[in-house]
Specification:
alpha/beta, 13 helices, about 35% helix
Length: about 425
């Protein structure tokens, strides 16, 4: 057994229930499905397949939840950042409609799994709120509410007075509220999904980075430094960390998105007087800015927030100062809060904010491009890909397949990505053209 993986310091690493690491893969094993990646997508796929009695082996390069799934803000959001439901239908027809419906139902699916499997993940289905940061963005919220309600989802528009009641602040102007959303401890969720999947018979191997995979005859082969898995089906679920541990792993997919560094942090626990006035309903909140402002409580009444910065000197300190100023501006009675934990990781972004689903070959699936909304979406796509490899006709599933399109000059664009933040900040100062 190798030494346990050291997790990047974070609030989640300090508070998630411990997990005894699964042993690395050794030798050659047979499975019905091999899953690459121990984040929300891979764990959801493994859980759903194992519940159906399938022999599934999951290979994780570090430890369950080590990547984006264990480092994010933990908001469970049933929408995407920019791609609206009608746009999915326009691009993919009925498959796009099914995908929009998958997105709209994704938060409910996650909380249903938590309840069904008894997962101890600090789950609070208190709703998700997207407040509008300008009067023009209220009109954008109106359009989003109208679009999602046409697709049958329970969302509503809140006016300025209702928004102030929800947030405990008059800093915003209105917004869209989705009651199925909420928040979780993301590393706890990942570890609990792993526990549940193993309880249903899935086999997990940690510290087992996949060096390569390929189709050999009628089966897939995924190889690590110490072993191989031979399987009828394969699901690649490494998303933003594709290529991080093995540069040759799905290079075209790895170059089809831009990895963006994201900072998260946590305040000291708020006293009950402040907690009862600031965000009294404990919703998850992320507003309409491109330079996003977002926050929610954890189980210990800390505000979990974050900030995007242009990299330079003292990135952690500058991100902490920016997030603290943002909270103080919206909630003057809070003052400039002290952060007890500051951490970071990567998310995957693409040019149009549309997640990409890829068919790798017979019974082979992958996706990439969470665009900052991977908690609910990744969990839902894990289930959907599990259904595909279990034998359901993919033409009837929510899997809008495209070919991976690598960014030209990917390394250069990755270095230039921080400049996009400056453009977003300027755009936030103008009203949308609706």
């Amino acid at each position: 057994m190798t030494d346990p993986v050291t997790f990047p310091p974070s609030l989640w690493a300090d508070t998630a229930p411990p997990r005894t690491p699964a042993p690395p893969l050794a030798g050659t094993v047979e499975a019905d499905t091999v899953v690459i990646g121990g984040g929300f997508t891979g764990l959801s796929a493994a859980l759903h397949l194992a519940r159906e009695g399938r022999r599934v082996v999951l290979l994780e390069g570090q430890a369950v939840g080590w990547g984006a799934s264990g480092r994010n803000n933990g908001q469970v959001i049933p929408t995407l950042t920019a791609a609206e439901p009608d746009a999915w239908v326009a691009r993919f027809g009925e498959t796009g409609r099914r995908f929009a419906e998958l997105i709209g139902g994704s938060a409910g699916l996650l909380f249903d799994i938590v309840r069904r499997e008894g997962l101890k993940a600090e789950a609070e289905q208190t709703g998700w709120f997207q407040p509008a940061h300008s009067p023009g963005r209220v009109k954008l919220s109106e359009k989003r509410v109208e679009a999602w309600r046409r697709f049958g989802f329970d969302v509503s528009l809140k006016n300025a007075r209702e928004t102030a009641q929800i947030l405990g602040s008059d800093f915003w102007h209105g917004g869209m509220y989705a009651p199925t959303g909420g928040h979780i401890n993301p590393l706890a969720l990942a570890r609990e999904l792993a526990r549940a999947a193993e309880g249903h018979g899935a086999v997990i191997h940690e510290q087992s980075p996949v060096k390569w995979f390929e189709r050999q005859g009628a089966e897939w082969v995924a190889a690590t430094a110490a072993g191989k898995v031979r399987a009828r089906a394969l699901i690649l679920a490494s998303n933003a960390y594709t290529g991080k541990l093995a540069a040759g792993l799905a290079p075209k997919i790895a170059r089809s998105f831009i990895p963006v560094h994201s900072w998260q942090m946590a305040t000291e626990p708020l006293g009950e007087n402040l907690r009862a006035r600031i965000l009294p309903g404990r919703q998850a909140v992320s507003d309409t800015r491109g330079d996003l402002r977002f926050f929610r409580y954890d189980a210990r009444n800390r505000l979990i927030t974050g900030a995007a910065i242009i990299p330079g000197l003292n990135d952690a300190g500058r991100a902490e100062a920016k997030a603290a100023r943002n909270l103080a501006e919206a909630f003057p009675e809070l003052g400039v809060p002290k952060m007890t934990h500051v951490w970071s990781g990567y998310l995957s972004m693409n040019w149009d904010r549309f997640p990409r689903v890829h068919k790798l070959g017979p019974d082979g699936w992958a996706w990439a491009g969470c665009n900052g909304r991977g908690v609910a979406l990744g969990t839902a796509l894990g289930r959907e890909m599990a259904r595909a490899v279990a034998g359901e006709d993919p033409r009837g599933l929510a899997l809008p397949v495209t070919e991976p399109q690598a960014f030209p000059y990917h390394a250069l664009l990755t270095r230039m990505a921080p400049a996009y933040l400056a453009w977003l900040r300027r755009k936030d100062l103008t009203e949308p053209d609706l």
